[in-house]
Amino acid sequence: MEQLQEALIQEIRHFTAESSWNRLTRIDGSRMYEEPLVGFADGDDPLFEQYHQIIGEFHLTPRQALNASDEPFVSVISWVLPIAKETLLSNRSMKEGCSVRWNHTRYLGDKFNNILRQHIVDFLTSRGFKATAPVITDKF
Fold first, then answer.
1. pTM of the model as a whole
2. Neighbour-count burial of 12, counting CB atoms closer than 10 A to its CB (0-12 exposed, 13-18 middle, 19+ buried)
């Protein structure tokens, strides 16, 4: 399991560093996001069951989202995409509204994150694992 986790961390970092989707193409071609922080959680952690009460019955647990009632282990992969320092600095100087860099990161960044999600689903399924990214499915 540790080898798979390390491979996933490296793949997420590599994709973020190299993908043309992680670029401010309409400004200067620089990256929107720096090196991601990546973490893993047990999909059967009782916290996920609590979401039914905290958020609502409609909320799916990781096992439900994966439709994996018979799987021995379900893992959740999470990442944080830190916004590039230049964008943070450009937004800090704004008196009203947001900077152009921030606006582009907000708009294009969602697209990149969805592409990254699909990339990781493909990465895992091509290796024989069941995988989903609920936010890019019809269930979300």
1. 0.91
2. buried
